[in-house]
Amino acid sequence: MKKIDKVALLYWERGRLLCTRSQGKETYYIPGGKREAGETDVETLVRELQEELGVEVRPETARLYGVFQAQAHGKAEGVLVKMTCYTAEFSGTPRPGSEIAELAWLDSSGLERVSPVDKLIFADLREKGLLQ
User: Where does the Nudix hydrolase domain lie (predicted)?
Assistant: First the structure.
């Protein structure tokens, strides 16, 4: 079974989670991305958030939130994505990087707009009272 290894940043305000939509895509994703060879979770998080949102993650503030797994969106049946989620502080104002078309603040009413693994994360945040 193939697994896609991703690391993501959970950043929410006022009951809504920051999500991104890539150029040419309709689905929104939690910011982050695939680990490169030899990278730690935090190194992946720092690199991906710089590329996608133009922010500088403070590595020492990164805290593991949880690990979620589901069918990978848009991939063959049986291809799973493992999403290791962190919270962290960062400097800078999130703005769309080169591959990002749009940023959006989504609450649980936006579930039809996110990937299967993100649906699990949204449900967990809502259950904990962190998401509307």
Answer: 1-130
Count of domains observed in the chain: 1
pTM above 0.70, yes or no: yes
User: What is the per-residue pLDDT across 56-70, written as a single tens digit (0 to 9) for each?
Assistant: 999 999 999 999 999
Q: Residue 99: what pLDDT?
A: 86
Alpha helix segments (H runs only) across the chain:
41-53, 116-127
Inter-residue contact 28 to 19 (CB < 8 Å): yes
Long-range contacts (CB closer than 8 Å, 24 or more residues apart) made by 105-109? 105/13, 105/16, 105/17, 105/18, 105/19, 106/16, 106/17, 106/19, 106/28, 107/15, 107/16, 107/17, 107/131, 107/132, 108/132
CATH number assigned to the domain comprising residue 120? 3.90.79.10
